[in-house]
Amino acid sequence: MITADYIRGFADGEGTVSLTSYSTYMIRIVNTDFTLLSKIALTLTSMGIKNRLNPRKVYGKNDKPQWELRIHGLKNLMAWRDKIDFDSADKKERLNDLLAYYNPRYVKTRSVDWNKIREQHYAGVSYAELGRLHGVDHSSIRYGLGVK
Fold it and tell me: Which of the 8 DSSP states describes residue 63?
């Protein structure tokens, strides 16, 4: 049985958080084990996270066929964050930045202490520094504070 913890660990090693050339934000997990990725895809689907599993072009003569599992769309990315997430600090930060950029209203759904952010803002802390301190994109801090 594939668990959320297993998927988290697997995605930490084999996954990326990216923006494609078609301006689509997504989590991608690439591997040669179709059976394993199929099981992960079914588990994600049962958790309400829509995904796609497709063959991936391989640019090498002796390379094994690769498969790519994609999760995209704000709702699915937020569900990933809430149900799976990453252990990797880099990937977790990238996902949070991506979600904030994808939809600044997302920040309001996170457990961010807006009272503390307001206090720090009134004390003169910059938007960029507030973003670093609280793990969100600075534009989302501005949005959350109601700055146009």
Answer: P
